[in-house]
Design a protein that fits this description.
Blueprint (H helix, E strand, L loop, with lengths): L2 H9 L4 H16 L22 H4 L4 H18 L1
Length: 80
């Protein structure tokens, strides 16, 4: 579920005072979090990918690997 869907489905229907309370709760929660560095949005630890695609090291075509990996993921989601 995306943030937009959550907003449309759950937050927008709330009365204005409840939405303001929610906004205050979110603001308070964010003040207790470490600051986000500039450019950190969407930042990814690329080293975390190490070893995730061993077939590519064996000469497997990258597009073929992406296609069959997506297919496997789709099949796993369909089973759930």
């Amino acid at each position: 579920m995306t943030v937009e869907e959550i907003f449309k489905r759950h937050i927008k229907p709330l009365p204005q005072l409840e939405r303001l309370r929610l906004l205050a709760m979110i603001a308070e929660d964010l003040t207790n979090q470490p600051p986000v560095e500039d450019g950190a949005e969407g930042a990814y630890d690329w080293m975390a990918l190490r070893g995730i695609a061993p077939g590519l090291l064996a000469g497997e075509d990258a597009q073929h690997w992406v296609s069959h990996t997506r297919r496997e993921s789709d099949e796993q989601r369909a089973v759930r």
